[in-house]
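Before relying on records like the one below, remember that each one covers exactly one chain. Contacts with other chains, cofactors or solvent are not represented anywhere in the record.
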Amino acid sequence: MHKIRIYISLIVSLLCINFSLVAQPRLTVIVVVDGMTQENLTTMRPYWSAGGLRLLSEEAFQTTATFPHQVYGGQETMATIMTGATPAHHSVMADYYFNRNERTANAILQDPNASGIGTDYSMSPRSLLSTTITDAWRMHQGPQAKIYAIGLLPQATIIMAGHAANACCWLDAAKQQWVTTSFYSEGLPAAADKMNISGRINTLAEREWTPRMDITMYNHPTDQEKKRGFTYLTKDYLLHSPAANTLVIELALAQQEAQKLGSDIYPDLLLLQLNTLSPKAESDAIESAEQEDMYMGINQDLGFLMEQLNKRIGKDKYQILVVGRPIKGYSTTTLEMANLPIQRFNSDRAAALIGTYLMAIHGHERWVDGGYGPFIYLNRMLIEKKRMSLEMIQRQVANFLMDFEGVQVAYPIHEAILSEDKNSIYRKHAGDVYFRLQDNWLLENSEEQAYDHVVQPQPEIPLLYWSGAMTSFPEGTLQATDIKKLILK
C-alpha cells in the first residue's frame, strides 16, 4: 500500500511538472527597435487599424524604462538592455574605445581571433564582460534550447546574441547578403544562406521606396516632401529603409520554421533588431513622412510575425517583448525652437590644448596620448620616466578642463569612478581624466563620431511585453537594467 502511494505521488508530480512546462511560453521573441520612442508610438497609433504595434498597444503590458548611465547613441544601450548591467560592468561605453598603445579608436567588439563569414569584420562578444539574456537562458534551459539573433548592425547583433547563441547574422548592405562571425558554433544559419542564394535581398533592394499613401495624409511631411513626396532606390539606403526590417522578419520566420522554434518542451529564444530611422532622420522624434512610413512598415512586419507564430505554434506558446533604443535623441532643429542651440565639444582639439598647456608647465614633451569621448589619455610612460606624480598631472588637467566652455565637471579618473557618473565608466578603457559636458553640448572627435551624444538627459525607452499565457503584469516603470530580469523571471 505504501509503495502504491509513492507511485501515485510520483505520477502526480510528473504530471504537474509536465503541465508547468507546457504552460510556459515555448518561444520568447525580443525585438529591439532603434530610434523608437513612446511619443512616436502615440503619434502613429491612429494610423494602425491593424498590425503588430496596434495589437501590442491594446493587449501588451506597457511602460517606459530609463538608463542609469550616460547615453551616447551607441551600443552601450544595447549592452545594458541585454546584460542588465551598466557600462562599469559590461564594458561597453560606446561603439569604440581608445587604444593607448596604438593611439587609435578600436571597435568595442573587435576580435582578431574571430573570422568574418561573408564579411571582413573580425568581431565577437569576448570583450563583453557581463552575462547576457542569452547566456542566462542557456545556463537555465540547457543545450537543447535554441537561440538565434538577427539584426542590421554587426555589434548590435552580436551583443544581442551574447556568448551563448547558436548563431547570429546581420545584413551587409554593401554586399546585400546576410553575414556573421565564426565565434558561434553554427556559423551562418542555413536559412540565411538560403535567402542569400535566392536573391530575395537583391529583389527588395532594387525596388523604389515611395510613400505608401498620399503625402497629404501624413502628419509630419517636410516642406520638400509636401512638394515632391520622397523617392529612394532602396539599395542606396538599405539599412534605413522599410525593406531592411522586412528582411529581418522574413529571416526570423524562416529560421523559426527551419529550427522548429517553440515546437518542443525546451524554451527557445529569438532576438531581432529593427530600425525606425530613415535616410534623412536627424532625430529619434518623427520629423518627416519617411519616418512615419518606417513605423507603418514595422507595424505591418510585426503583425505578420505574430500572425505566423499564432498559426505555427499557437498564441499561448510564445511571448514577445518590444523595446526602443535611443540613437539620435533630439534634433538641432527641435532644440533651436526652444532657443537651445546645440554646440560641439571636440575631444581631439581639447587634448591638443591640454598638451600645449602641460608643455608650458613641464617642458616640451608629448604629455598627452589623445582625447577620445569624455576622456583625456595622458602619456603615462613619459610621466613614469620623468618620475613625476600622475595624480598631480591628472589634477592639473581636470582643473584646466573646468575652464573649457561646455564642460560641466572634470575629475581625475580615480575620483570619477566614485562620482555620480560611476555607472558610465569602464575603468580598463577609461582615460586618466574624465569630463562631463553641459546639456545640449555634443561630444565628438575629429575622425570618428562614435561619441555623438543623444542630447536628452536619461532618455526614456518604450517597452511593450505581450504573452498569450500571461495572467499578470509587472508594476510601475523600469530601468533598462530591469529588462533582463523581466524576461528571465
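Residues 1-22 have pLDDT under 50 and may be disordered.
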